[in-house]
Amino acid sequence: MKGRAPLAYELFYWPQIPGRGEFIRLALEEAGADYVDTCRLKGPGRGTKAMLSTMYGQGVAHPPFASPFLRDGDVLIGQTAAILLYLGGRLGLAPADEAGKLWTHQIQLTIADCAAEAHDTHHPVSADLYYEEQKPEAARRAKYFRDERIPKYLDWFETILDRNPAGRAHLVGEKLTYADLSLYYLVEGLKYAFPRAMARHLPGRRSVAALAVAMPQRPGIAAYLVSPRRMPFSEQDLFRHYPELDDPIG
User: Fold this and answer.
1) Neighbours of 157 (CB within 10 A)
2) Which of 91, 141, 145, 200 is a good FRET partner for 124, with 20 to 30 A between their CA atoms?
3) Residues 112, 160 share a domain
């Protein structure tokens, strides 16, 4: 990375789950960037304690509201989409022109919207309550998300891919951007959380399905997915699989 000081990026996120931090990890891994997943390390300035100290401690001029956040030397950035906007050009994963950068950022924000809605199917009342305390509301929210919102989002991504003048392989232009990697992760998360609903919706969106197949075949991503750095989905995560929230069987 031309002009970059020889310091590793420091990613702060919960150490037990991929969650929203995975959007950032995929970009860093694809680019072969030097980074540390700070909360997964032990020692001074590492671990969850260091993350919470940065968020809530004294002396941080611009404290992030929540994780994930990224430190690059003296620069501290919160919010997944803002982090990827910052990293995009530095990692070669965003267009060079201003319009292309903003279009990629817009797509990323929409991916974030969909991920947030997926999360809210299992926590529709409050993130401070357990899923078991809001199951009736979750069932109602999940049905609407499965039947109305998932296809609406997938159709938008399909339209973008199909209208890309450079071809359907990427969301923006002819080269890979962080938005492609993020859409892949979103699709994987939705397939984990709603396997039956996605089996109903995804085949009809061929360009989205093809992108989701292509991303894990990239050398950097393929190596990451089989490494110990990659964490599995779980029911403590952003995307959770509760069978009762998926399409009915039969």
Assistant:
1) 22
2) 200
3) yes
Read off the pTM. Answer: 0.94
C-alpha to C-alpha distance for 29 and 21, rounded to whole angstroms: 12
Q: At 111, is the pLDDT very low, low, confident or very high (cuts 50, 70, 90)?
A: very high
Same domain for 104 and 203, yes or no, is yes
Burial of residue 151 (number of CB atoms within 10 Å: 0-12, 13-18, 19+): middle
Question: pLDDT tens digits, residue range 123-153?
Answer: 999 999 999 999 999 999 999 999 999 999 9
Q: Is the pLDDT of residue 1 over 70?
A: no
d(CA 224, CA 154): 26
List the CATH number of the domain containing 131: 1.20.1050.10
Q: Which domain holds residue 195?
A: 98-218
For residues 175 and 114, what is the distance between their CA atoms, to the nearest angstrom? 24
